[in-house]
Amino acid sequence: MRIETLSVFPEMFDSVMHASILGRAEERGIFSFAAFDLRDWTHDRHRTVDDEPYGGGAGMLMKPEPLMEALDDLESTGPRPHVIFFTPCGEPFTQRTAERLAGEERLLLVCGRYEGIDERVYARADERISLGDYVLTGGELAAMVVADAVVRLLPGALGDEMSAQDESFSAAGLLEYEQYTRPASFRGQDVPPILLSGDHAKIAAWRRANALERTCRWRPDLIEHADLTDEERERARELIARNAAGAAEGAAATDCGVV
Length: 259
Ligand code: JQB
What we know:
The chain has 259 residues and is α/β, with parallel strands linked by helices. It has helices at 14-18, 20-27, 64-75, 95-101, 140-151, 160-170, 200-218, 230-249; strands at residues 2-7, 32-37, 50-51, 61-62, 82-92, 106-110, 127-130, 185-186, 189-190.
């Protein structure tokens, strides 16, 4: 895969895109990356990329000409890029979006600044994405989040064990189960004894039940679309009702339920 970004802060991508898992995936040739500087498509002495909004109002907007010319140039070579614009008005980014984007040959991630982009430039977007319901100062961080989530899905980007583990849990639509490493007892907190038992069937059952409990406690909204057995769905209903009752009473909540 090829990932390209277009922004006025290309240097923001340097550390994130070349460190850790992304850096290793790049060295292995799993993806290649380039950050383009929008100011390279300006023609004035001040390399202007912003202008005042028609109709008035606070702040500035990205003017259309540099963006349009940059897109003309970048789209004129190589495979047709899938063009994504980041905006708080976009569709929410989810794991499903990441899985779909991982199938693209070339992603062009367009990152605005100021109060946003002249509306006419969005004609060039294949899609508009938002990370979530909060306001960032620009699209660069969103582009790095998307690149990170997409690259780790590319074959070979992670170790084999990790990708296999992923599948079994994101597939069910539940939160991950609790995880522990050594020491078995730490500052008065013990690892659940089943995990030390060596009984793999019991461990798998405990993990599944734990994932269900945690999801009911922290993200009950996920239960409706989770892939559950009839028995698990009934148990989830009980847990969610119990948590709601406990919350209403103002009782102390434990990690996965209410006492
Ligand atoms: C400028 C951005 C995000 C890109 C994502 C997310 O767009 C704006 N509108 C009003 C005030 C400020 C801005 C700042 N801004 C370009 C730009 C914000 C993305 C953004 C985003 N993706 N929140 N904010 N989830």
